[in-house]
Amino acid sequence: MSQSQIGTASQSVNQPRAKHSGEVVLLSSGKSPWEGISLEHLHFPAIDISNMTAMSHHLTLQLGTPKSVELKVNGKFNRQQMIPGNVCITPAQHLHAIRWQSEMEVLSMTLEPSFVMKALHESVNPDRVELIMHRGQNDPLIREILLVLKVELEAGCPSGRLYGEAMGTALAVHLLKTYTKLQPTPFQSEDKLPHYKLAQVLEYIQAHLDQDIRLADLAALAGMSKYYFCRLFKQSLGVTPHQYVLLQRIERSKQLLKQKDLAIANIALMCGFKNQSHLTTLFRKNVGTTPKRFRTLA
To answer: Domain spanning 244-297 has what CATH number?
Structure first.
């Protein structure tokens, strides 16, 4: 099976991607707050992609109905049936060719090599890591993450960059653990964040609740990779960083709702919600009533 080194290429997934003739972009994360990853919902006509080399890693989730494609391996095209729900994994710098004779619909995830490597930097030597190409892989975790991010994107990314970064990090670590020769340092379930580091992170979160908090900033504050930070944070508090931030925003909104002179729309922005509708949806889900009703009863 073909292999390609992950490397440390610095090309950004926000740069324009080379489009194919007849390709239709149905949905794109181009204007989302996500960093290091991008997601597109694409519709292709019959097409012949010859000897293409991408600068980033690509995951393609087959949608719709089964399709017959031809993949070039060792200089020869071989026919393969692509099943909806299955995933193709193409490493950066990998030279590949593929063609098909009918329309096709896919979810396409792109990950920067640097983003993938930073996800688990404590136990990774980037010069020795190889991501292995797979075609038609049945991987429930990759499928679920891509579909969840599609729903988030369709909703306008209301959960912010922290959510997207966390999902992208989980995906990157899964790739490193499952589709490389990497053998990372085992995670000890009893590990937790040191108290002083946890205190620093929680203080930072409180001071920046009105902003779009980045997972990378929280991990850097703790002095570790995003993956290990997420794991240790949850071991320490029982919730993920994204869940904790959401709960703190809800609690702050409760306090501000007691100030009758503040408009609910302004409270939403002061607590880091995208808008009043975003606050109302999550407030009702977590508190069991709307902000307006809560204010009346307070």
So the answer is: 1.10.10.60
